[in-house]
Amino acid sequence: MAHCLLHITGLIFGGVGMVGTLAATAMPQWRVSAYVDGNIVVFESIWEGLWMDCISQLGLRLQCKLYDSVLALPPLLEAFRALMCAAVGLALLSFLAAVVGVTYSQRGPRATSALLLAAGLAFLLSGALALIPVSCTGAGIVRDFHDPAVPAPLKRELGAALYVGWGSGALLLAAGAIYCHCWC
């Protein structure tokens, strides 16, 4: 009974982490314009994401533009896109493997335990893949925000997608830990 409860908990953590990783990948709020130097009246908010930039004017009108060319992107952004897409794909595969392993855990314990171990390792890997670009982006934003050489209009703050990415990465790591613990 305790194993069944742990399997279901791991499945819930993995499913929520998978959806969160997909949401963080698609959200344009990775880097959000910062209001510094006593700038009270602001007419525009700028969002920068992996796939597009958005400008909100007075909170009434939102315009988003996809990046024109993949070749014109900075190499770091291309790498972050690839890591997040790999994390989403691996999280989806590990979630499906965990569903199959939990479903058939009563029939053949030896085969399903290997499947649950594979799902746990894949959850751990997908969580690490999701945390790398999110944490690197967050560290870059904090570094640039405190750098006096960066002009105030170019300073950015942490966006909502980073918080979603950190939470979903943690859930994926927790799901992987649960399935690896159940295998032991």
Describe this structure in words.
It contains 4 helices and 5 strands. It is α+β, with helices and mostly antiparallel strands and 184 residues long. It has a 5-stranded antiparallel β-sheet with strand order 4-3-2-1-5. The model has no long low-confidence stretch (mean pLDDT 87).
Return the CATH architecture. Answer: Up-down Bundle
Sketch the topology as an H/E string, one letter per element.
Answer: HEEEEHHEH
The count of β-strands is 5
Instruction: Provide the β-strand percentage band.
Output: 5-15%
- For the residues shown, what is the average pLDDT? 87
Tally of domains: 1
Q: How large is the radius of gyration? A: 20 Å
Largest sheet: 5 strands, antiparallel
* Low-pLDDT residue intervals, each spanning 5 or more residues: none
Number of H/I helices: 4
Write out the strand line-up for the largest beta sheet, numbering strands in chain order.
4-3-2-1-5
Percent in helix:
55-70%
What structural class do you assign from the helix and strand content?
alpha+beta
Question: N-to-C terminal Cα separation, in Å?
Answer: 16 Å
Which CATH C-level class is it? Mainly Alpha
Q: What is the CATH third-level topology name?
A: Butyryl-CoA Dehydrogenase, subunit A, domain 3
Membrane topology: Multi-pass membrane protein
Function: Claudins function as major constituents of the tight junction complexes that regulate the permeability of epithelia.
GO molecular function: structural molecule activity
Subcellular location: Cell junction, Tight junction; Cell membrane
